[in-house]
Amino acid sequence: MRVTLTHRHEDGAHLAALLCHFGPGWRMISSAPLGGGIGPRHWVLNAQVVPHYSRMDPAAHLTEISPPGPGVGMLTAAHVPAYTHATDHDTTALATVGLRIPTWAAAPAGTVDPELQPGTINIIATLPVPLTDAALVNTVITITEAKTQALLESGYPGTGTASDAICVAAPTHGSPESFGGPRSRWGSRLARATHNAIHQGIRKWEMS
Q: Which InterPro entries match (predicted)?
């Protein structure tokens, strides 16, 4: 993976985007509006938008600013140049973190979410081994649990924000691993990398 920061002018602001280049030979699972689901992808874009962002077509917007070819695109109002990076035994986690309004996943019915900023906590994770579909899904659960653990340890009353996005990338070559849970070999490593990256991001956000 090769990581670059790009910039563009939009809505009267100078905005950054984090572009992770993978190339062919990678499979990803993502909740992002562009390229979400499971399938072969060549890049991941985490693009910053203005705090008052109001477009209702995020996939179309991301297509306008993304490189060609199959990829994953997500949006955030967090300060993208402050992204964090952590590793654990060849797994990596990159995160952009903003915690203006943390949210409980199981909030009472009818709760109005005041969070208008998209993708406040975005995570891009990689590992060096292929995974089955089930294991890929399991890594999403594991990474989300590690994120929530970091938030609670830091004193934030919530499981995340209402528009968090995630992408996990794994190579396609080799015999796929069947497990991605927090006690599995690779799931535990992804969890530690994510936990570290989120803690770093929280500290940066608190100092901003």
A: AdoCbi_amidolase, CbiZ
pTM of the entire structure? 0.95
The number of distinct structural domains making up the chain is: 1
Which residue range is the domain that position 179 belongs to? Answer: 2-109+116-207
Residue 114 has pLDDT above 70, yes or no: no
pLDDT per position as a tens digit, 167-198? 999 999 999 999 999 999 999 999 999 999 99
CATH of the domain at 198: 3.60.70
Across the strands, what pairs with 19? Answer: 4, 45
